[in-house]
User: What shape does this take?
Amino acid sequence: MTIETERLRDRVAAELLRARERSTRLTEAVDDDDLVAQHSPLMSPLVWDLAHVGNQEELWLVRDVGGRAAVRQDIDELYDAFKHARRDRRALPLLNPAEARRYVAQVRDKALDVLDRARLDQGRRLVADGFAFGMIVQHEQQHDETMLATHQLRSGPPVLSAAPPPAPASVVTGEVLVPGGPFTMGTDTEAWALDNERPAHQVFVAPFHIDRAAVTNGAYAAFIEAGGYDDPRWWTAAGWDHRQEAGLTGPAHWQRDGSSFAATTFGRTAPVVADEPVVHVGFHEASAYAKWAGKRLPTEAEWEKAARWDPATGRSRRYPWGDAAVESRHANLGQRFLRPSAAGAFPDGASPLGVHQLIGDVWEWTSSDFHGYPGFAAFPYREYSEVFFGPDYKVLRGGSFGTDASAVRGTFRNWDYPIRRQIFTGFRCARDA
Ligand SMILES: [Fe+2]
Assistant: This one.
């Protein structure tokens, strides 16, 4: 066994621990009644997420990688995300909070034992480079972000708090020109990249302009004040139908406050900050704003080229700032702050062309449907991505303030229905050059 393998083992253990600390914070912030409550039909009870995280860890690390006996085979069906809709999970005979905590701790002990003995440097593709462990780390962190979104939807006094995000040294506005030509999209080399990020392939992108920052609350408020929600010219037919049916008048959690707007964030209501990115808007709202502004949403390929393409070398990098791992100075990630930061707050994370905050702050809607790349092969199971391919889902990129660094990178792809806005979604605009 090499030093690198031992380093990887230590890193996996540290990442598993970090994810569990976050899950614990999110589930200990509320009482048992709150843990089993259905805060929104769009979300599971928090206690379901917790035990589901343990169940996936059991399935992949304990049973599959470790070849060990099942801890609780009898509960697999309850925690299979494909068997029960989120709105129905509360009525299931779920583990109660104490049982769920005991279960995830028991699974974790066994998973760490499996990690100790796993040959990370050889053998099965599932285990090579610690992939299965990385997948489980990302899965737990993804559910932590989901649980954070549930926190945003719960009512009652606030239970989460954080310092405000850093203020920008200088405000970033305007757009940059991304030259036309091919670039490498996706990856073959990122060890913990998921199946839908693979394989790396060349994509030709025509020249385009992209905003240096995400659309702000101030800019979005101007769209509302200009009657944007009442003018079907800016909306697609499907978008307008949805706007009418759902009675949309602004981002989720906004209230009009005289001539301005306030927003409720994790139980606290305050005036919206004009130069912070707008959050909790759906795809239809994002596209309507873009059309009103004389622009459009970027395609997924445009977003990734703006984020990864290095004009000096022609290479695609792991992140906008280069290949170096995420540091706190690069991006607003990991729930360190409970809201997105103003454009210019993370200058060290900018791309070579001067596009800011592509990683962190808000998930950014793109205009692209979710599809497999040419040569896509499902791994390790079809239900991770492939069953979602098609025109029903739009791709989101870049992660939010609630996304952990382990669960986002320049190639990372998220997807959701165009009407969804309970996740931490915003957008930036682009236009043809
Ligand atoms: Fe899951």
About this structure: The chain has nine helices and twelve strands. Residues 52, 56, 81, 139, 143 surround fe (ii) ion (CB under 6 Å).
